[in-house]
Amino acid sequence: MSAEFLSALCEGRILASKCGECGSCSLPPRRRCPECGAETGYVELPHRGRIITYSEIHVSASRAELPYVVAIAELGEARLPGIVRNARYEDIAIGDEIEVIIEKRPSESPLSCWYFFRLTKQKR
Ligand SMILES: [Zn+2]
């Protein structure tokens, strides 16, 4: 993720780029549109969205707690990947609503923020 994305995240904002020509949105934000190459501006995304796809991770070098679920959520005009913290794979369905939770990590760095997804509905 870019420095622009991380510094906005630490202020509680989810930033994407939006093309001035074709209107395509990108995450992480890019200076040039990946679709048409035109210059982009920033757009702030809502903190709630819907899961469009998800998968269960069983092997990872970086996390101790396995398995965990990653999802791609549609937040307004852009798509954001993230870990779903409060649900198991079998509790999730495409179209479920999630909320993006931003948290600070214990670190000296000013860009020490990250996010995860929280499923907002009750378990079936
Ligand atoms: Zn474009």
Radius of gyration: 15 Å
- Identify every distinct bound molecule in the structure, by name, code or SMILES: zinc ion
Q: Count the E strands.
A: 8
Ranges with pLDDT <50 over ≥5 residues?
A: none
Widest sheet, order of strands:
6-5-4-7-8
* Residue share in β-strands: 35-45%
The largest pleated sheet is described as:
5 strands, antiparallel
* Distinct helical segment count: 1
Helix content: under 10%
Q: What do the pLDDT scores average to?
A: 90
Indicate how many domains the architecture comprises. Answer: 1
Order of helices and strands: HEEEEEEEE
Structural class: mainly beta
Protein architecture, described:
The chain is mainly beta and 124 residues long. The chain has one domain. It has one helix spanning 3-10; strands at residues 14-19, 25-26, 40-45, 48-57, 68-75, 78-84, 97-104, 113-119. The strands form two sheets. Strands 6-5-4-7-8 form a five-stranded antiparallel sheet. The protein has a three-stranded antiparallel sheet with strand order 2-1-3. β7 and β8 (113-119) form a beta hairpin. It is globular and about 40 Å long. The model has no long low-confidence stretch (mean pLDDT 90). Bound molecules: zinc ion (ZN). Residues 19, 21-22, 24, 33, 35-36, 38 line the site of zinc ion (ZN).
